[in-house]
Amino acid sequence: MNRQVRRLAIAFLALYAVLFAWLNVIQVVRANGYNNNPTNTRSEVRDYGKPRGQILSADGDVLARSVPADNSFGRVRVYPEGELFSQVTGFFSFAYGSDGVEKTYNAELTGKSTAHSVDDIVDLLLDDVTTQDVQVTLSKQVQQVARDALGNRKGSVVAIDPRDGSILALWNFPTFDPNAVSQSDQAAAAQARTLYLLNPDKPLLQRSYRETFFPGSTFKIVTAGGGLTSGKVTTDSPSYPFVSSYTPPGTTSPIRNFGGETCGGTLFEILRVSCNTSFAQMGVDIGASQLVDTAHDFGFSSVPPIDLPGAEASPIGSTAFFAKNQPLVAQTAIGQNAVKATPLEMALVAAAIADHGTVMTPHVMKQILDDKGNVVSTYKPSVWKTALQPGFADTLRDGMANVVAHGTAINLAVPGVPTAGKTGTAQVGDGTSHAWIIGFAPIDNPRVAVAVIVESQKGASEATGGQVAAPIGRAVLQAALQAVPQ
Predict the structure, then answer these.
(1) Catalytic center residues
(2) 379: Cβ–Cβ under 8 A, 6 or more apart, which residues?
(3) Which residue has the higher pLDDT, 1 or 373?
(4) Minimal CB count within 10 Å: which of 69, 194, 223, 242?
(5) Residue 264 region, left (φ>0) first, then alpha (ψ -120 to 50), else beta?
(6) Quick one: which H or E segment has residue 76?
(7) pLDDT, tens digit, for every residue of 321-374?
(8) Is 358 helix (H, G, I), strand (E, B) or coil?
């Protein structure tokens, strides 16, 4: 009998140990994943009727706040700027959960975070409800310029401070009004959300960091970085042949320059004119392993650690994926075929060159304030990736400066400010192309890096990026330089 009791006790202990371990997996190991799951709305259901802090722009404008309402909750979340900041604030809905800053910083907004001021702690002891405000890094002025410059063209604009990773503008069109989805009238909120979901242009999709596109010739900066890192490319050699097409080993299908143009030469020249044939050959010469490794160093294939939920990685095939397929390597080296990028990732590429090869962690939180306006905590910048050695990054900085001064990105130049950039045109396959620009300014002490994509433009000329996207980038750079301190 004692043996049976002992066995039963051991069995119960084992089951308890398994249960304890599994609870720890759920509550600790997987907690972040469950909390950030878009389908998890428990925190919103719990917190919807409770006091909630404000979301503020870098220049102090109210982007989200809770106001009294004649409903069963007694309040409703409103967004005074409407669509302007919806990609950042997200929404806060009883039925559909939350997104953006509303989700990432829910604990701070509801006063449940561990960071509190002395006054907050006193309030807690007195059982008073305390909330905190989240101030973001985005400037209303810069965000408005991004919106107005892009207009009603489908696309995205990202501006970032390369020195610390602060997001200065994050805009895409089409977009949505968070007030419509967050309203307390559940029938009206459901109707608004349904109409957004039925829209083929996907206005609820934050295209700037959740959608990937062929980066086209803007990716040649990464390819050039791989060439410099490999030691097979310098500013003086090789001098690529002046040709109108290049046929990689293993195929009879040539890669051509836009419009059948003839180009070639050394690094700065092929960057200046964005020469497809030269960069395709560069990709083959340095090999898939070097190209992929350099892309990874810039952040490709990794999810950017931005403090907004649902960010997408920018995929590039692995070295094994290329499997000595040199035509595929050549096409990828010019930003087509096996590589895609979010606008955020391409802004980080520009920021890496601006910051001597360092990719800072992108972020939208500037600081947390208590309900009396006192600073509770401030974002601490950190390095995410080291893309290139400083000397190689500085070489590409000079090359990108030449592209603006004498090449395809001349329309990016900010008057009176030395500017660096790279255009791109990515062919989609339906007769249209995506127009890209990336760049930064001022060259000697960069404070702003930018990436712009204007989707589905007619034509496939390298001039598309320079004519369509570059003026948008210039306007945003100019506004951001006025808003960002030196």
Answers:
(1) 217
(2) 137, 166, 363, 365, 366, 367
(3) 373
(4) 194
(5) left
(6) strand 75-78
(7) 998 899 999 999 999 999 999 999 999 999 999 999 999 999 999 999 998 899
(8) strand
